[in-house]
Amino acid sequence: MKVKITLEKLLVTDNGDPSHEPNGELYYSFKVNGAELASREKNNPEDVKDGATVQLGKIKELDVSSTATINISGFVGDVDKGFNGDDEFDDFSLDLNTSNNWKQGSNTVHLVDGRLNVTLYYKVEAEGETTGESLNTPKKTASLTLVSFLDNDFYKLIQNAAINYGACFEGYDKSVLMKKTYNTSPKPTIHSRDTSKKAFLDLMRDLADDGYSIDLFICSHGTKECITLDDGQEISNADINSLGTGKYAGGKFPLRMAYQVNCHASTLNNNFISIGAKAVMGRKEINFYPNQITKFVNHWNEGDRFDQALNESDTASSRTVMQLLIVADSKVKKFSPRCPLVENVLNKNDGAEAYFTKYWLSKSEYNSSASGKDNMNDSSKQVIAGDPGLRKADRPSW
After folding, report:
1. Which of 25, 182, 265, 297 is in Cβ range 3.0-4.6 Å of 260 for a Cys bridge?
2. Strands 174-178 and 190-192: what pairing?
3. Burial level of 133, CB count in 10 A (0-12/13-18/19+)?
4. In this structure, how many other beta carbons lie within 10 angstroms of the beta carbon of residue 398?
5. Where is the composition biased (Basic and acidic residues) (predicted)?
6. SS3 for 269?
7. Angle formed by the axes of helices 350-359 and 372-379, to 10°?
8. Is 249 helix (H, G, I), strand (E, B) or coil?
9. Which of 287, 284, 240, 237 is nearest to 262 (CA)?
10. DSSP 369
11. At what angle do helices 292-301 and 306-313 cross, to 10 degrees?
12. Mean pLDDT across the stretch 373-388?
């Protein structure tokens, strides 16, 4: 079969420059199966203004088998010219294969970091036999929402975030909520008060066995490569991998999407993808903005692409709410040195570093040259794996 990939253009919503002037800042590279198709070197960047369109017009045609996978990857960066010393930079990687029907048609990828906001437009055309082995295409959809927090600083932060779990039930043939108590409307199809690891793995497997594709919402604490539950148990990367065994081996577990509130969730992204997830998001390190899940789910329910719903949820107001909670928390916590009288932990000062490295971030995770607010934003960066163009209306195959 033949697959034709056209990289059409870049829409520059924000060029990453606080002055919004063309300073020759934009550089990028896009590859198909590791071979470069379009690029602009960092030492010779593109002069762009906000709202500009960079025409690419690059085409790649491939002869592949129906069981092949084609990878498209790339990045966009903004050359920093002295504001904070760091380039805004975002990258992506996605696969085309029979399970997503080669993503035929017009597609977009959002690349966002700090002020930088760029959208790649690309088109895929396929000719010939586009299906390989017999695939499973679930006709029913289910959501599973796991809410399991330890009684710690993160738990208190999330409690103040006023998350609307009911939005996670909307529009599914079956909805499952795992939470110790829940007395709010709307009600899920199933409310499990058992939030143990075994219950989670059993419910995930039961939904898959019953013919559902699953959207997973994890609202829990986490550390690197594991989800920490309120009973002290941990769902490890190995536990996630265990879902992709038996008849679900080879990436056939019907997990359509996973949204993770847990800290360090990005370290689990590849595990979810390997068992079959089509798209997954996890935070880079500590997630200071757990409240963003509600707006994400609302946009997901409205039909937005996965990456677009994530982008729409990451608002200044949602960040400000949690930043003010952090300031309030710092007022009652002990750390030394304290912040200067006219400043707080959101500013760049020794007190901010002392507070964050004592209660939230490790010393290696904290950037001393940045403000407390910038450290919160960087730590909470949304890391996407899989298909950023996935929508709730999609019915993928495994």
Report:
1. 265
2. parallel
3. exposed
4. 20
5. 389-398
6. helix
7. 30
8. coil
9. 287
10. T
11. 140
12. 93
pLDDT at 134: 66
| Phi-psi domain of 82 (left: phi exceeds 0; alpha: psi -120 through 50; beta: other) | left
Residue 155 has pLDDT above 60, yes or no: no
Residue 220 carries which DSSP code? E
Is residue 102 pLDDT above 90, yes or no?
no
Question: Which secondary-structure segment (H or E) carries 322?
Answer: helix 316-331
Contacts 24+ apart (CB under 8 A), 340-349: 344/372, 345/372, 346/371, 346/372, 346/373, 346/376, 347/371, 347/372, 347/373, 348/372, 348/374
User: Over the range 179-216, which residues count as b (16 or more CB within 10 Å of their CB) and which as e?
Assistant: beebeeeeebeeebeebbbebbeebbbebbeeebbbbb
Judge whether residue 11 has pLDDT over 80. Answer: yes
Q: Is residue 203 a contact partner of residue 144, using CB atoms and an 8 Å limit?
A: yes
| Strand pairing category for 105-113 and 88-96 | unpaired
Residue 282, pLDDT > 90, answer: yes
Structure tokens at 54: 């960079």
- The token duo for 88 is 């805004």
Q: 305-320: b or e for each residue (b if 16 or more CB lie within 10 Å)?
A: bbbbbbbbbbeeebbe
Q: What is the CA radius of gyration of the chain?
A: 22
CA angle 251, 256, 262 (to 5 degrees): 95
> How far from each other are the two terminal CA atoms of the chain, in whole angstroms?
20
**pTM higher than 0.90 for the full model?**
no
pLDDT, tens only, 62-93: 999 888 899 999 999 998 765 556 788 888 88
Q: Which two tokens stand for residue 385?
A: 């794996």
Cα 130 to Cα 69, 103, 239, 390: the distances in Å are 12, 11, 33, 19
Q: Which domains does the chain have, with CATH numbers?
A: 2-127 (2.60.40.150), 140-314+382-386 (3.40.50.1460), 317-379 (no CATH)
pLDDT tens digits, one per residue of 321-348 = 999 999 999 999 999 999 999 999 999 9
Q: Are 115 and 16 in contact (CB under 8 A)?
A: yes
- pLDDT > 90 in the chain, percent: 71
The answer to whether the CB of 288 falls within 8 A of the CB of 376 is yes
Sign of the Cα pseudo-torsion (156, 160, 164, 168, in order): negative
Identify the residue whose tokens are 């909307």.
170
Q: Give CA–CA dist 394/89, Å, rounded.
A: 29
